Known about the structure:
CATH class of the largest domain: Mainly Alpha
Order of helices and strands: HHHEE
Strand order of the largest sheet: 1-2
CATH superfamily of the largest domain: Large-conductance mechanosensitive channel, MscL, domain 1
Number of strands: 2
Helix content: 55-70%
Shape: elongated
Distance between the termini: 55 Å
Amino acid sequence: MKKFLKEFKDFAVKGNVLELAVAVILGGAFNKVVTAVVEIFLNPILEALPKMDNGGTGFVGSLITFAAVLIEFILTALILFLIIKSFNKSKDMKKKNEKPAAPTTKTCPFCMSEIDIKATRCPHCTSELK
């Protein structure tokens, strides 16, 4: 039971769960921003479009609501895509800036086996190395 609790603690404290919680909170806040943009700017434009003879309620009103929801979804997906793309790009730039680890092995020129970098004699073929 202690091992299970330790594993759960390690899982919860490591970045995965914390990052997910932050992403959910930011996603909710971002959704409110996109909803406000759609309601303030796009709905008046869609409602100003010519309406049918019956006053535009019913089917046309449903179409306007659907168009607003669709535009909201597309804007949300597009902006989240751009955020994730820039995050991945910055992560890749960090990896490029890191220096590769020094090699710990070398290849014996006689038998082509992997040996320790500090070796002066090959343990496989017993050849002397420079």
